[in-house]
Amino acid sequence: xxxxxxxxxxxxxxxxxxxxxxxxxxxxxxxxxxxxxxxxxxxxxxxxxxxxxxxxxxxxxxxxxxxxxxxxxxxxxxxxxxxxxxxxxxxxxxxxxxxxxxxxxxxxxxxxxxxxxxxxxxxxxxxxxxxxxxxxxxxxxxxxxxxxxxxxxxxxxxxxxxxxxxxxxxxxxxxxxxxxxxxxxxxxxxxxxxxxxxxxxxxxxxxxxxxxxxxxxxxxxxxxxxxxxxxxxxxxxxxxxxxxxxxxxxxxxxxxxxxxxxxxxxxxxxxxxxxxxxxxxxxxxxxxxxxxxxxxxxxxxxxxxxxxxxxxxxxxxxxxxxxxxxxxxxxxxxxxxx
Length: 338
Ligand SMILES: NC(=O)c1ccc[n+]([C@@H]2O[C@H](COP(=O)([O-])OP(=O)(O)OC[C@H]3O[C@@H](n4cnc5c(N)ncnc54)[C@H](OP(=O)(O)O)[C@@H]3O)[C@@H](O)[C@H]2O)c1
Known about the structure:
Blueprint: E1 3-9, E2 22-28, E3 36-45, H1 49-54, E4 74-81, E5 91-93, E6 102-106, E7 111-112, H2 130-143, E8 150-154, H3 159-170, E9 174-179, H4 182-190, E10 196-199, H5 205-212, E11 217-222, H6 226-233, E12 236-244, H7 265-268, E13 272-275, H8 285-298, E14 305-309, H9 314-318, H10 320-323, E15 329-333
Parallel strand pairs: 8-9, 8-11, 9-10, 11-12, 12-13, 14-15
Antiparallel strand pairs: 1-2, 3-4, 3-6, 3-15, 4-5, 5-7
The protein binds NADP nicotinamide-adenine-dinucleotide phosphate (NAP).
């Protein structure tokens, strides 16, 4: 292979990501410098935050600039190496690889992906990757659910939410999930052991929360923002914890998203509201993996991936995150697994 393909940001999206906002370009693969490796990318993680990175709003990383390769996380195989640390065939995480068939990276930015018998490579792109770490640090380190408490998770059937809810169940909490559609709600209560599920596409969320959380809400693992967030927030108990993980309902909207209607509830009910970004917690990843690893190996924690194929389909595929037209952590397979 002498050329690579990569998606370049051409325009900042207005509303939903449109086909012309990015352009797929093909170019020769550059020669490696000393200490660099060439990685053939296998899986690309498609994430709600991709939409944030495409915008120039105030955010936690620099926005992707017009003309730059779209940023993205992935896993791949070393094809060429000019580093003693990696050899051809090694399975690695090349850092923020980008929406590209290949990545040239300095060896110091590359980390090996462990091979664990019985654990598929896709686990490291989901439950044992940033997704699982987000769920664990958000729920366990920040939410701190206690036995008997009521926990509400939004986007509960999604990649992060489904794991976060199961972790709260393992701590003995009562867990209610909010998700779109009967099939996703049935999965939460039928297979993941959630105590209740609310289909926000067909039910009034506030009325359903009143029915399913008669004693109020102690922990809100918030993934959605907007009216769903407000409905949960306005039912939080004294000393409740709001884990602000994401606000996906606002990412396509532009402007400054609305917060909870009644800000004084934080004062009157002595709430803790904490936003977090998983990259700040990566130095502590081993704390989360010490619990997640055995749960995955034993099958006690359930997780799913939804794999779309072909780098050329990246723009269409990422849109699924905003319609819910995916079932599990959304991945793009760029080339075959080794
Ligand atoms: N803080 C961090 O470090 C961090 C890290 C990873 C992810 N996140 C955040 O976590 C959230 C979930 O991310 P994920 O990767 O696990 O994705 P995901 O939940 O697998 O997919 C996104 C889901 O969001 C729901 N959704 C989209 N638009 C919605 C809307 N307008 N109203 C209600 N629900 C909507 C859909 O669920 P339904 O099909 O049920 O509608 C969709 O499946 C996002 O907000 C993301 O930004 C934060």
